[in-house]
Amino acid sequence: xxxxxxxWVNISNPLDGIARPIQAFFRNMPIVEEQVSSFGSxxxxxxxxxxxxxxxxxxxxxxxxxxxxx
Length: 70
Prior knowledge:
This protein is α+β, with helices and mostly antiparallel strands. The chain has helices spanning 43-48, 54-69; strands at 8-12, 31-35.
């Protein structure tokens, strides 16, 4: 299932009690760790707020555009 992935971008919030750096779980794939922390300090906001954040949207758009050029 993961054989077609060339890299993974892990977007996390330092205040998120669930998300963690994931490089140790994907030894054969480059992992890019990005931190986004502009969407609150409440535990649930820290974990689910990624989808409402402009930096998250910019990170996703960057990689989609790079893949399309590709």
